[in-house]
Amino acid sequence: MPEISTAKLSIDPALLPCGASARVLDVGCGDGRHIVEAARRGCRAVGVDYDASELRRARGRLHAHRVDLIAADASYLPFHTDAFDAVICTETLEHLRDDVGAIAEIARTLRDGGTMLGAVPSHFTEIPFWMLSRSYHETPGGHVRIYAPAVLFGRLRDAGLAVTGYRYVHFIDSLFWLRFCVRDLLRGGRPRSDYEAAILIAVAAEQRVPAWRRQLREAIATSRFIAAIDTVGALLWPKSLTFVARKRVMSAVARDAAHQRAGVASHTDV
User: What does DSSP say about strands 110-121 and 240-247: parallel, antiparallel, or unpaired?
Assistant: First the structure.
């Protein structure tokens, strides 16, 4: 929901490569705030999202930055194998029915030794949110799973991606989502169909964002004091788990075997 989404990045942009020769892909790029950071570093930047409306929002954020935006399915990415030096995937895997296929595609398109910068909702907060609010996870396009770190890291490992670091982030976001879930619980009534739920989402998306929420969201990215509260609070009540993974260097034979197991094929250059 845009009215409670953070303006703060879920990744460390310093871990992105620099220069015109570097290629960076953002899978599930949403409003584009992460892939723009890659473009600012001079990279060849590509954003992919299944939702055309999200790509329109991202285009409005680009300004003078050059980013290629493509509508595509995360489980069947239209790029050659080993095409990218880094892949970003934040707050996306939890929405996908075929997360294993998407992770396999991310690994396939990432070069050996390349970096994946990812984030998923923290299971610490997801569990109570799911219990409080049916709308939180039953709304069309919402979350379809809760990731325990061991499960997520295991799926990454199976795809040839070794997690090298992780941390919990976005305390203030978790407070906004808690407010949403409690209000949904107290409201009591539930949409009678997916269509009715979609209408409610559309109406909510058109509502004006209160000034105080917009200012607080911006302050997370600009105020050191607010950022410090967000960082310390995330030790207790984080919204997201952010992680860094490296693609293991494999022999040609092992790479071909991994691609065959994933059941994917490269078919388009970036």
Answer: antiparallel
In which residue ranges of the chain is pLDDT below 70? 1-7, 188-210, 212-214, 216-221, 250-270
Q: Nearest Cα to 31, choosing from 3, 17, 249, 16? A: 3
DSSP-derived secondary structure for 175-238: HHHHHHHHHHHHH----SSHHHHHHHHHHHHHSPPPHHHHHHHHHHHH-HHHHHHHHHHTTTS-
Spell out the SS3 assignment of 159-191. Answer: CCEEEEEEEEECHHHHHHHHHHHHHHHHHCCCC
| 229 and 172 Cβ atoms separated by less than 8 Å | yes
The contacts of residue 29 (CB under 8 Å, 6+ apart) are 35, 47, 48, 49, 54, 55, 58, 69, 88
Beta bridge partners of 169: 240
The string of pLDDT tens digits covering residues 30-44 is 989 899 999 999 999
Q: State how far Cα 119 lies from the chain centre.
A: 6
Full set of structural domains in the chain with CATH: 2-262 (3.40.50.150)
In single-letter form, the type of residue at position 80 comes to H
What is residue 253's predicted lDDT score, i.e. its pLDDT? 45
β partners of residue 167: 242
Query: What three-state secondary structure class fits 86?
Result: strand
| 160: nearest Cα among 245, 101, 63 | 245
DSSP state of 157: H
Place of tokens 């022999």: 251
Token representation of residue 7: 């303006």
In angstroms, rounded to a whole number, what is the distance separating the alpha carbons of residues 47 and 24? Answer: 9
Cβ atoms 139, 197 nearer than 8 A:
yes
The end-to-end CA distance of the chain, in Å, is 30
